[in-house]
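ingest -> validate -> predict -> emit
validate: passed (alphabet ok, no gaps, 149 aa)
predict: started
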Amino acid sequence: MGMFSKACEYGIRASIYIGQQSADFGRRVGLKDIAAEIGSPEAFTAKVLQQLVRAQLVTSVKGPTGGFELTPEQLRTVTLRQIVVAIDGGAMLQGCALGLPQCSAKQPCPMHYQFLPIRDQLNELLRTHTIGELASKVHEGLGFLKQFN
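emit:
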């Protein structure tokens, strides 16, 4: 079980795959290819991609040579945090570990002080890593989007 929703996990993996295809081959990829590559049902993948396109984190081009792509600008600037926020919202990245609306230093939940540094580290990790960087790791064989048995 991951720390993000299934939709968010698929969104991150789809973005990395699209980014890798855009950066390495300058090509757009279709929904079927993306879903197969990240191991996600097509209809679910389509909804996730729609959210990313709406947030302008992924580009969709219609027509016979259409598909999904990341522009050079998107590869350079789109961060993991933007994808997480577009799909899951920012509550996990700002809120209380137990989901309490009024959790603060004044009224801390039982996990407040242990969770704060973890939440800050997670925010930093997501904010400082771009899709382009992660796509490069896949290209170089330093990271994988699928598990092989």
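The beta strands are 59-61, 67-69.
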